[in-house]
Structure formats: C-alpha cells, structure tokens
Amino acid sequence: MKDTGFFAEFRKFISRGSVVDMAVGIAAGAAFTAIINSFVNDIINPIIGLLVGGIDFSSLQIVLKPATETTEAVAIRYGLFINSIISFILIAFALFLMVKAFNKLKESAKKKKAEQAAAAPAAPPADVQLLTEIRDLLKERN
What structural domains does the chain harbor? Predict the structure, then answer.
C-alpha cells in the first residue's frame, strides 16, 4: 500500500523537529499555567481577600436560580472570572519578562559578535596571502 495523500503529509508534518519543540513548549506552558493558577488561588487571592475584608473571590457569585433537591443552583460565578483575570495578567507578565530577557540576551550576543568582528582584522583572501608569501620568499633570496 502506497503511503501518499493526507496521512503521508501528516506523518511528514509530525516528524519535523519544530512540531516536537512545539509539543514540549505546550507541555511546559501547561505546567507553568498550573503553577500560576496555584500562585493566584493559594497566595494572591487570600492576601487580596484579607485586604478587602476577608472576601474569598472564588465564592463570589450571583445566584440566578437557587438550588433545589433535584437541581443545582444556576449562578454567575464572577469570582472565578476575577481569578482567571488575575492568572492571565500574571502569566502575561511572566511571559513578557521571559521574552524581554531572551531578546536582551540575543541582542547582547549579537553586539558581542559585532565587537569581535570589528576588533579582529579580517584575514586577507587566500590569493592575497599566497602573493604575500611569494613576495616574502623573493625578498629573502635577494
């Protein structure tokens, strides 16, 4: 059976190195998100709640229909939404700092490379080196 068409294209796509790098990045991002969510829910929100009078953001809600024996309450859980906003801001800030540090490191390496290129004189081409050697040999003979 010849492997052409959609599945061959998919196998080619998935075997590229960039796809594996992307998968690793997504897994690391998911772990990072879990850490940020824990930081927000377990550290930031209790501090903010304490500052605003002991309010637990995750329990803030507007009940549209109270719970009955057979159904759950219908509520707008805006406290969880506030938690999500705080998490998003912290994740965006952390990513901003990481990108900023990466760009600074990249710029520093580029600047260092440019300084090294400017400091070291460029070697003459091979034909010029050969002619210089011939000249020096002729000078020694005379």
Answer: 6-141 (1.10.1200.120)
